[in-house]
Design a protein that fits this description.
By secondary structure, this protein is mainly β. It is 0% helix and 52% strand. The strands form eight sheets. Strands 3-2-1-30 form a four-stranded antiparallel sheet, with no helix packed on it. Strands 4-5-6-7 form a four-stranded antiparallel sheet, with no helix packed on it. GO terms for molecular function: 6-phosphogluconolactonase activity.
Length: 395
């Protein structure tokens, strides 16, 4: 029996950012046949699926419910949801637990399906006011933001999630107004050994490295890598064969390479590349959050030869040839095929790169040239309201 490749698309059911007048209740996860683009399944349309992770065995999918009003109560935080996948690729809801924070935006799971790890981004605009006593003994009002945090969840034998067993609250700030008033972890990533969990904190310009204790369900920080001030590190991707990782900076349209020591978790900066052309100019539209370009996602090709980064605002994909020493050589910068490419991912064979253009509501497919790494728009697309992420699995 031939195996069927399934595309899973996560969507927001509420207007968080970057999309005009989305239809309420049109979020959740939609599953498509990768060959025909036929809709196979759709579940939980009221869930703001900010990120998904597919279990290695393909039997379960885990997703963040990116909100802070879980259960309809504002301030109740976000959620982490678990789904079972049947032989046809159809999804069924298992359970949802509190993310123990606000706006969980990223999730990953280990290959043995023991734990799920999530990043709680928090809101950079909404604040609460508290009365505090000053050093002079007087009293004043002080603004407090949502906490940014990393959360760890046990996975049960039936694939459902247990409550949060470990939480690391991140503190600090950096130099940019609004986006960096406080910590905003935007992704979590396991290293190839799965002994370490990395977190890109775009609010503090840091990449945190934690040693994972799978026996007790705990995290211990072993390294904190400083990045360029005002850069906003967002997502992380490891090289498939070399002790190297790559991280895109949201706020200054750059991508960086680092060495990674799998024995200690220590990192060292190697190279920097720009993701837009030399003649790039921001849009003259103060009402558009993406008038000034922001990078969104990055992926390393399974061959280890190429790296791809998506640009929101410039609405493009930047491609790089990778060298074993961590250097990145620009190949090309081409149109993403739509507007606001929030997420990118390869099919299982690595032959196609799918681009999730959030604002235009399309998933656009590009073929990948094995020799040059260049992308070609195939003019094939899936239309989805407010899509934000994409994963693949085989059934």
């Amino acid at each position: 029996m031939n195996k069927q490749e399934i595309i899973y698309v996560g969507a927001w059911g509420a207007d968080i950012q970057g999309v005009n007048n989305p239809e309420a209740g049109n979020g959740g996860i939609k599953a498509y046949d990768a060959e025909t683009f036929e809709l196979v399944s759709k579940v939980t349309p009221d869930v703001n699926v900010g990120s998904m992770a597919v279990a290695k065995n393909g039997r379960y999918i885990y997703a963040t419910d990116e909100r802070k009003d879980l259960g309809g109560v504002h301030g109740n935080g976000g959620g982490i949801a678990a789904y079972a996948v049947d032989a046809a690729g159809k999804l069924s809801f298992l359970n949802e637990v509190s993310s123990a924070g606000a706006y969980p935006c990223y999730i990953t799971v280990d290959s043995q399906n023991r734990y799920a790890f999530a990043a709680n981004h928090g809101n950079h605009e909404e604040v609460i006011t508290r009365s505090v006593r000053t050093e002079q003994g007087t009293y004043a009002a002080k603004r407090f933001f949502d906490e940014g945090s990393i959360a760890m969840f046990p996975i049960k034998t039936d694939g459902s999630l247990g409550e949060c067993c470990e939480l690391k609250v991140l503190e600090g700030s950096s130099e940019l107004p609004l986006f960096q008033w406080t910590s905003h972890p935007h992704s979590v990533c396991l290293d190839p050994t799965e002994n370490y969990l990395l977190c890109a904190d775009k609010g503090c310009d840091l990449i945190h490295v934690y040693k994972i204790d799978y026996e007790v369900g705990a995290l211990k920080e072993v390294w904190a890598q400083k990045t360029e001030k005002g850069s906003g590190p967002r997502h992380i991707a490891f090289h498939p064969t070399q002790p190297l990782l790559y991280c895109n900076s949201e706020q200054n349209h750059t991508v960086h390479s680092y060495s990674f020591d799998p024995q200690t978790g220590e990192m060292n900066h190697l190279n920097r590349a720009v993701t837009v052309s030399d003649d790039y100019q921001p849009k003259d539209d103060p009402t558009d959050i993406f008038a000034h370009n922001q990078t969104a996602d990055l992926k390393v090709h399974k061959s280890g030869n190429f790296l791809y980064v998506s640009n929101r605002g410039d609405d493009s994909i930047a491609s790089y040839r990778l060298n074993g020493d961590g250097k990145m050589q620009l190949i090309e910068i081409i149109s993403s095929g739509g507007a606001i490419p929030r997420s990118i991912n390869f099919d299982l064979a690595g032959e196609q790169l799918y681009v999730v253009n959030q604002r235009s509501g399309t998933i656009n497919k590009f073929s990948v040239d094995d020799d040059s790494g260049k992308l070609t728009n195939t003019d094939s697309e899936i239309q989805v309201n407010n899509p934000v992420n994409i994963q693949f699995s085989e059934r």
